[in-house]
Write a structure and sequence with these properties.
InterPro entries: DUF8149 (IPR058462). Residues 3-68 form the DUF8149 domain. The chain has helices at 28-40, 50-63, and strands at residues 9-14, 19-24, 46-48. Helix content is 40%, strand content 22%. It has a three-stranded antiparallel sheet with strand order 2-1-3. It is of the alpha+beta class. The protein has one domain (9-63).
Length: 68
């Protein structure tokens, strides 16, 4: 089992169900896959909060020097 005491919480949203939750980063992929498999026959409806996803993309691009 993973120690999640220092694991950041990541918001996930499913507009198809109208649900929002947060999960530890270490469980993110598993939780997204589980939700989409059990609720939407594998179609990707649940996703990381779009605002957070955009911020993360900007930070990664900046870190890689892609914005210079």
């Amino acid at each position: 089992m993973t120690d999640t005491s220092d694991d950041p919480e990541i918001p996930i949203i499913c507009e198809a169900c109208g649900t929002e939750t947060t999960v530890p980063l270490s469980d993110l992929e598993t939780q997204l896959n589980r939700h989409n498999e059990t609720r939407h026959d594998g179609e990707e409806h649940a996703t990381v909060d779009p605002a957070l996803k955009s911020q993360l993309q900007d930070l990664v691009a900046e870190d890689l020097g892609l914005l210079e």
